[in-house]
Amino acid sequence: MSKKDKKSPASRMQPARTPEARENQLISLAVDLAEKQLAEGTASSQVITHYLKLGTMKEKLERDILASQKKLIEAKTSAMESAKHVEEMYAEALNAMRAYNGQDTEQQEDEFYDY
């Protein structure tokens, strides 16, 4: 065995720069260990059950639903941003028309939003 083989996987990794990167490193190590345990037949029942559940149709469907919900939220966010932009464009157009007609734009805006 060479010196490289004796080093643990953690010692080969560069230190994480962010908490998210550190979390990803730990997840990677845990998955590697679970894979090794499964291959050697030494995995606990919890590890086996976890990976069995990942392969079920229900889990796959739940992942698809979450992906669809994410797309829907992104679309709604985009639509809201677009509506805000359109609203700003309308306000600018109205102010430009008022200025063209010689009207005081600030006074008209106050009247427009006065309920």
Gist of the model:
The chain has 115 residues and is mainly alpha-helical.
Structural notes for this entry:
- This protein has 115 residues and is an all-alpha fold.
- 0% of the residues are buried.
- The chain has a domain at 73-115.
- The chain is built from six helices and no strands.
- The mean pLDDT is 85.
Q: Characteristics of this structure?
A:
115 residues; mainly alpha; 6 helices
Average residue-wise pLDDT? 85
Shape: elongated
Query: How is the main sheet built?
Result: none
Number of helices: 6
Low-confidence stretches: none
Distance between the termini: 83 Å
N-to-C series of helices and strands? HHHHHH
Structural class: mainly alpha
What's the total count of β strands?
A: 0
User: What multimeric state do the chains show?
Assistant: single chain
Q: Gyration radius, to the nearest Å?
A: 29 Å
Question: How would the blueprint of this fold be written?
Answer:
Layout: H1 3-6, H2 9-12, H3 19-40, H4 45-54, H5 57-101, H6 105-113
Helix pairs in contact: 5-6
